[in-house]
Write a structure and sequence with these properties.
Layout: E1 2-6, E2 27-28, E3 31-32, H1 33-43, E4 48-53, H2 57-64, E5 73-78, H3 84-91, E6 101-105, E7 108-110, H4 114-124, E8 128-133, H5 138-141, E9 143-146, E10 152-155, E11 158-159, E12 167-177, H6 193-202, E13 207-211, E14 216-218, H7 222-233
Parallel strand pairs: 1-4, 1-6, 4-5, 8-13
Antiparallel strand pairs: 2-3, 6-12, 7-14, 8-12, 9-10, 9-12, 10-11
Helix pairs in contact: 3-6
């Protein structure tokens, strides 16, 4: 399976740190954030990765090159005009060769069994699988409503009606999707992948939610960036665990 890391964001909430350095290159205890995520992919045998670029993207490309030093094969999708999560994935669509692929946000730090996520996706047989997590501030993040069968019914209040109770989760920014999900995403225009999810759910397509339990942090503000550094120092997440490859 191939993967994509979304790394084109502007990082506005982290200025001035991101005035001269793109957010994916901000160091977490000396190692760039994007490298943490690349090593997580490699740990689960995912070695073909495309990275989209916009803000200071040339610095990311200079730092990572073709990925050989990390045991990976990296290519880049350059966005002269930022395309958002929908347009950015759409631009890279041909890279996946019509096969399901994994997407990670380049601005999150997490510990997650990607092998379990991929197995869950294949077993459920849906159009896509969204990795979800419980959070006391779920409404602030944007609630994803899931039924007892783990099927996603609504995202931010939009989607399909359902019978019975639902659980509310937040989207962790990791998902496995079939390229069919991109069929209605306009090429060359900025859009959100959430709009594509809602459209397909409303049309009756099956999207499932995988509950994660491990460490997760959105490196979106100086405060959360500092906390992530402390979390690593405190042993809540360990870079060394990512060095062993698991096929």
């Amino acid at each position: 399976m191939k993967a994509m890391i979304l790394a084109a964001g502007l990082g506005t909430r982290l200025r001035p740190l991101t005035n001269r350095l793109p957010k994916p290159l901000l160091p977490i205890v000396g190692t760039p954030l994007i490298v943490w995520n690349l090593l997580l992919l490699r740990r689960y045998g995912i070695t073909d990765v495309i990275v989209n670029l916009h803000h200071l993207g040339h610095l990311i490309e200079q730092a990572l090159g073709d990925g050989a030093q990390l045991g990976l094969r990296l290519v880049y999708s350059r966005e002269p005009v930022i395309l958002g999560t929908g347009g950015g994935i759409k631009q890279a669509e041909s890279y996946f060769g019509g096969e399901p692929f994994l997407v990670l946000n380049g601005d999150t730090l997490l510990e997650l069994d990607l092998g379990a996520v991929v197995r869950f996706h294949r077993e459920q047989g849906g159009l896509a699988t969204m990795v979800l997590r419980d959070d006391p501030e779920v409404e602030q993040w944007g609630a994803v409503e899931v039924d007892a069968g783990r099927r996603v019914l609504r995202i931010n209040g939009r989607g399909a009606a359902g019978d019975g109770s639902v659980a509310k989760r937040m989207f962790a920014g990791v998902h496995v999707m079939h390229p069919w999900l991109l069929r209605g995403v306009p090429a060359g225009r900025e859009s959100s992948i959430i709009d594509a999810y809602v459209r397909e759910i409303e049309g009756g397509e099956a999207v499932f939610g995988f509950d994660m339990k491990g460490y997760w942090s959105d490196i979106g503000t100086p405060q959360r960036y500092d906390q992530a550094q402390r979390d690593v120092d405190g042993g809540r997440i360990d870079l060394a665990l990512r060095t062993a490859r698991v096929d």
